[in-house]
Predict the structure.
Amino acid sequence: MIFDLNKSIEILKRTPAVVNALLNGLNSEWLFNNEGENTWSPYDIIGHYIEGEKTDWIPRMRIILSNGEDKRFVPFDRFAQLNNDKTKPVDTLLKEFAEWRKNNILELRAANLDEEKLNKRGIHPAFGEVTLRQLLATWVAHDLNHICQICRVMAKQYKEEIGPWTQYISIVNK
């Protein structure tokens, strides 16, 4: 599929509701269990979404669209959420994520992006030059990736319980 801003916003604006539907009101075992050492729980993933809303997608769009000469991105701490307060209720985090996302989509729309703007470039700390189009397409894929991750982490909680069906439930084997 070729990048289309309106199609991208269709996904971006739905992600908070999808994650909310998956996680709000669940038992803490569903929220805090993970896949083992150095892996994330669904709770951690919500924190990661929030960190991205605060410091990644729109801040990097601003850098790309700025008139400044320096187009280098500030490195994104992909693990910042692991240092956050783990006592915040999940519904509070889900509301925070939804609010950040709503405001970021408003700013994204207000940028009036056209082909010229989508082709502007910034400098990623690891990848070098990237276009705004690539950044925004990655934002969409990132959302979908973490929705899949949440589902995988949760499904794996029952890997031993499903017995012989394990061979047919591919998500628990990834």
